[in-house]
């Protein structure tokens, strides 16, 4: 099997893809491929049998996290007896830990809203009694939204328990592993107490794997430029640890190479746990240990073999790890770099070597990056070329040095601390300026499975041609890569399909209209909640729902935004949209008043303000909207709402904002022959709107209600629902169905809900 271990590893990948996407043909295709290689004498019989056996085993061994979660016997408060089986995570506001039930083996993610001063004995391995109500974690309610349920499921956790009372938790005892986790916690606390906040945050992130103190703005900045790998402990850190140990033991302590190796073998697993046990550090540590073990046993394995075996072992120990994004990215990048090592060695210049490494790393994860984050920043390849050496040669070594000096020569650390803060502040200024000037990502949207397969085929052939110095052929295959990505980007512009989406943003409105052939993207309202304790709208809805949805659809600019009225639940996200992406027009009523900062932003971004009123006809690209209200200033934001009539996908639509029954009566009076297929039920289903007379006149077939789950206003009101049901209106509600979409082509379309 020497030199062939990557075949069973690829077999596991095919099993995973077959399970994840429900396409059994993927594993069948893999079987045909390796059998063909065997027939062509390019694969031995042993390699064939082992590959087939391992692939089949993992096809039945790997879990399917998309399957419905097994229901508990009851959903009332119950007693859970089990052990804490994962490290306890503590923050100033809450404590998270995982308890594995002694009887069922189910993992429960427990969140306690308190702190360690409450005297709870929350330690790894502790036996606990938990009194609480198990529930299924919240799933994503909109396309593109982060799915918390899937996130926990990728760790093998399908239930959560939320506790507010310390008396509901009783824990005793611990395990040996608690000593390691406690040491990590003590080290993090020591660093926070003896270094400046900025230096402590970076040291804990880069050496101990705790990035909780890195501010969110920095994390977002690094994510935008594909630099988040620098915040995760990886092979670079493990290499530094091994190098430091060897230097200290062999050069300064006089230890033999044999003793130094055994010291590394013992220490490295401990460091992997001290560093947080993330997939990247586990991979790097396991590879070093396997290399040392095979050297001692006289085995001859290639680096790709070692990577493949580590890949299989980690999945064997934890089958859920294959679903974790960090695991996928870590192995994908490492595999790409190993396959390209000969090409990397062809370069004598250090700069161009780093540039090649950055190029391979970014290109290897491009489909995964796009699938998870919907964007790709080409300039990140160049920025990584500059930033990675800065971290490799200065930041990370300095962090390790400061940690090692702390117990023996801590008096030097204040000087090193000052040096780091001074240089790192300059670094942050440079990267922030780069972000302001040059950040313009490619918004690609989803990366289809077939396109992913074609991408990697093209990329592997491209690298092979480049390595063999066949420049013209390499250029041709490189062009095919670019063409493939561009086809994905322009796909919506070639599609005759359109879509109307009512996003579930809670107690607020946000509709996205995507016209066929991407001739226009129109938003009708963009609400937001208000920050707790203040009047400023929160950016959470925009960052967590609206922007992810737009990006998942490959939308990078907005043609028009209609704001029905100036209430936060209808326009609160508008300033954040304005600051984040190009907007051509904003359409408001004659009685809409902009806040001064918003007016300034509109002016700076050269957004055309269109004021409109009763009887106006607005043509937005290929979309035609008729304004049915307001016709006068009603001295009320709600009654002054824009009411829009349009035709989309063969159906007539009425968007009503928050109008009340008086405005409804006025619309009926002005338009006595008005009939509607799809009614956006006004004011989230408030009983002050959607009167029976109005419904009887317009005869809607579908009613769309945007309301928050268990909202404080009890929207939609029972009377409104009864009126809609009496008129036999098909009701779609965001609080019940999540996002609601109408997909259409020409004059026909269908409604669908994001939640089952």
From TrEMBL:
CDD domains for the chain: ComA-like_MBL-fold
Main location class: membrane
GO biological process: establishment of competence for transformation
Pfam families: Competence, DUF4131, Lactamase_B
Domain Metallo-beta-lactamase positions: 507-709
Keywords assigned: Cell membrane, Membrane, Transmembrane, Transmembrane helix
Gene3D superfamilies from the UniProt entry: Ribonuclease Z/Hydroxyacylglutathione hydrolase-like (3.60.15.10)
A cellular component annotation (GO) from this entry: plasma membrane
Topology within the bilayer: Multi-pass membrane protein
Coiled coil: none
NCBIfam families attached to this UniProt entry: ComEC_N-term, ComEC_Rec2
Name used for this protein in its record: DNA internalization-related competence protein ComEC/Rec2
The organism of origin for this protein: Lentibacillus cibarius
Taxonomic placement: Bacteria, Bacillati, Bacillota, Bacilli, Bacillales
């Amino acid at each position: 099997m020497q030199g062939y271990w990557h075949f069973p590893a690829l077999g596991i990948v095919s099993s995973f893809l077959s399970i994840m996407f429900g396409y059994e043909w993927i594993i069948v295709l893999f079987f045909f491929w390796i059998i063909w290689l065997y027939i062509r004498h390019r694969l031995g019989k042993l390699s064939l049998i082992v590959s087939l056996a391992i692939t089949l085993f993992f096809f039945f061994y790997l879990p399917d996290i998309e399957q419905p979660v097994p229901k508990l016997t009851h959903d009332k408060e119950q007693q859970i007896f089990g052990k804490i089986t994962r490290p306890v995570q503590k923050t100033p506001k809450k404590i998270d830990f995982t308890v594995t039930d002694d009887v069922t083996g189910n993992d429960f993610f427990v969140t306690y809203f308190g702190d360690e001063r409450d005297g709870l004995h929350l330690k790894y391995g502790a036996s606990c009694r938990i009194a609480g109500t198990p529930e299924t974690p919240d799933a994503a309610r909109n396309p593109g939204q982060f799915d918390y349920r899937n996130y926990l499921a990728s760790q093998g956790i399908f239930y959560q328990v939320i506790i507010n009372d310390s008396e509901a938790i009783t824990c005793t005892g611990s395990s040996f592993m608690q000593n390691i986790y406690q040491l990590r916690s003590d080290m993090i606390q020591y660093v926070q107490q003896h270094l400046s906040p900025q230096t402590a945050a970076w040291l804990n992130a880069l050496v101990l794997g705790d990035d909780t103190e890195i501010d969110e703005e920095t994390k977002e900045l690094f994510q935008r430029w594909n630099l988040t790998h620098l915040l995760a402990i990886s092979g670079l850190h493990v290499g530094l640890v091994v190098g430091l140990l060897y230097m200290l033991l062999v050069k300064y302590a006089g230890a033999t190479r044999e003793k130094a190796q055994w010291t590394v073998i013992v220490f490295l697993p401990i460091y992997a746990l001290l560093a947080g046990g993330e997939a990247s550090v586990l991979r790097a540590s396991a590879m070093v240990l396997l290399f040392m073990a095979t050297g001692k046993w006289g085995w001859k394995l290639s680096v790709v073999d070692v990577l493949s075996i580590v890949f299989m072992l980690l999945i064997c120990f934890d089958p859920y790890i294959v679903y974790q994004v960090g695991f996928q990215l870590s192995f994908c990048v490492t595999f790409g770099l190993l396959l390209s090592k000969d090409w990397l060695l062809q370069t004598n210049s250090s700069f161009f070597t780093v540039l090649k490494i950055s190029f391979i790393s970014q290109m290897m994860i491009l489909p995964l990056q796009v699938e998870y984050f919907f964007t790709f920043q080409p300039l990140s390849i160049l920025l990584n070329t500059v930033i990675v050496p800065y971290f490799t040669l200065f930041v990370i070594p300095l962090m390790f040095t400061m940690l090692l000096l702390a117990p023996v020569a801590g008096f030097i650390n204040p000087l090193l601390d000052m040096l780091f803060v001074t240089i790192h502040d300059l670094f942050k200024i440079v990267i922030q300026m780069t972000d302001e000037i040059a950040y313009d990502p490619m918004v690609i949207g989803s990366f289809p499975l077939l396109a992913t397969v074609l991408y990697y085929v093209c990329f592997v052939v491209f690298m092979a041609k480049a390595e063999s110095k066949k420049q013209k052929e390499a250029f041709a295959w490189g062009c095919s890569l670019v063409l493939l990505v561009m086809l994905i980007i322009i796909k919506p512009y070639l599609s005759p399909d359109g879509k109307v989406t009512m996003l579930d943003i809670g107690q607020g409105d946000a509709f996205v209209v995507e016209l066929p052939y991407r001739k226009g993207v129109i938003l009708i309202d963009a609400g937001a909640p208000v920050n707790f304790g203040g009047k400023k709208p929160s950016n959470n809805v925009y960052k967590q729902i609206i922007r992810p949805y737009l990006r998942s659809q490959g939308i990078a600019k907005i043609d028009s935004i209609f704001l029905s009225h100036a209430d936060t639940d209808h326009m609160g996200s508008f300033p954040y949209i304005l600051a984040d992406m190009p907007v051509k027009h904003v359409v408001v009523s004659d009685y809409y008043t902009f806040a001064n900062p918003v007016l300034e932003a509109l002016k700076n971004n050269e957004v055309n303000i269109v004021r409109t009123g009763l009887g106006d006809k607005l043509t937005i690209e290929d979309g035609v909207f008729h304004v049915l209200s307001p016709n006068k200033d009603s001295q009320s934001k709600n009654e002054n709402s824009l009411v829009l009539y349009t035709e989309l996908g063969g159906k007539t639509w009425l968007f009503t904002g928050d109008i009340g029954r008086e405005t409804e009566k006025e619309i009926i009076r002005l338009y006595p022959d008005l009939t509607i297929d799809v009614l956006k039920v006004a004011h989230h289903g408030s009983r002050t709107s959607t009167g029976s007379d109005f419904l009887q006149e317009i005869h809607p077939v579908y009613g769309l209600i945007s309301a928050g789950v268990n909202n404080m206003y009890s929207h939609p009101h029972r009377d409104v629902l009864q009126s809609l049901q009496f008129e036999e209106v098909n009701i779609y509600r965001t609080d019940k169905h999540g996002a609601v979409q109408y997909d259409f082509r020409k004059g026909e379309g269908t409604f669908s809900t994001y939640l089952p």
